[in-house]
Amino acid sequence: EEEGPFDGILGFSQGATLAAIFMLLSTPTAATPPPFRCAILVSGFIPRDASLLGLIESRAASQPPISLPTLHVMGENDTFVSTQATLALATSFANPSYFTHPGGHGIPSNAEFRKSITDFLAKVGEQTVTAGLTA
Predict the structure, then answer these.
(1) 72 in active site
(2) Domain Serine hydrolase: where (predicted)?
């Protein structure tokens, strides 16, 4: 809280899962804004730990999906985190965006991926400006 607010968070694999759990368990209020304005989650997945999974399922049953803009990145040849696991995590968010790359378990660095990041962040920026004008 001392160093925030933050524009966004980028997480890879377990880091993406941890970022998603943090967002799912941080319930914003009028007095406490969300911790981030967006998230980029690369090879994220629903946690396998029963207690964390229970928290997520409980939240999903009692609250709507999080409206925070998210970009979910998945590799077609990822042998550690399946596309299905990444898509399952994305259901926790209201309007997820997706980027699929032909690689494996890693963060792509090609021009197409950089453009998807740029486009996603531009969209988040536009939404933020629009929200500020209507607030």
Answers:
(1) no
(2) 1-116
